Amino acid sequence: MKFTPSKVNLFLLFKLPSAFITGVRVVLLDEEKSVIKVKHRWMNQNPFKSMFWAVQGMAAEFATGILMVREIQNSGKKISMLVTNMDATFTKKATGIIRFECNQAGLIRETIQKAIDTKEGQTVVLTSEGFNEEGISVSKFNFEWSVKVKS
User: Fold this and answer.
1) Could you report the per-residue pLDDT of 63-101, keeping only the tens digit for each?
2) 113 domain-assigned
3) What angle do CA 129, 134, 135 make, to 5 degrees?
4) Shortest CA distance to 149 belongs to which of 124, 112, 105, 123?
C-alpha cells in the first residue's frame, strides 16, 4: 500500500474503527513527519468538556505508529513492532482541533536498520506532541516501540 493520508484514513475506518469514529485523521505524511488531527466533540469528550485522554493517546500513538509501519514496509523485511511502554504529560485542556506531530522518521529508519544488521530486537522512544489551534502544546506522549526482524 502506498502511504497517503486518504488511504491511511480508509485503513482507519476498517482496521481501527474506534479511532475513526472518534475523529482521528491523518493530515500529513511525508518522509520525516506525520501529522494527525482530531477535533474535540461530544463523541470524544470527558466529563470536564475537554478531549478524553485516551482519544489523545490514540491520535498520538498513530502519529508514531504510521511512521513505523511505513519505514518497516520500506525496509522490505518482515519486522514485528510493539509498544512496550508509554508515558504522557497533559498541560492544557484539549478543545477545538488538536494536531499530533511526530518528526522522527529518521530515528525509526536507523533503529530498523540496526535491527536488520544485528538480527536483534531494538527499542526506540518516539514522541508525539499535541497542539491546539493556537499552537499551544496540550499533551505530549512518549511511546517506546520494540522492533524485531522475524526469522
Assistant:
1) 999 999 999 999 999 999 999 999 999 999 999 999 999
2) no
3) 30
4) 112
Reported as a single tens digit per residue, the pLDDT across 27-36 is 999 999 999 9
CA 79 to CA 44: how far, in whole Å? 33
Q: How many Cβ atoms from other residues are within 10 Å of residue 20's Cβ?
A: 17
Work out the pLDDT band at 143, boundaries 50, 70, 90: very high
Q: Any bridge partners for residue 109, and if so which?
A: none
CATH number, position 97: 3.10.129.10
Beta bridge partners of 101: 35, 129
Closest CA to 101 of 22, 51, 37, 144: 37
Return the SS3 of 145: strand
Measured between alpha carbons, how far is 57 from 98 in angstroms, rounded to an integer?
Answer: 12
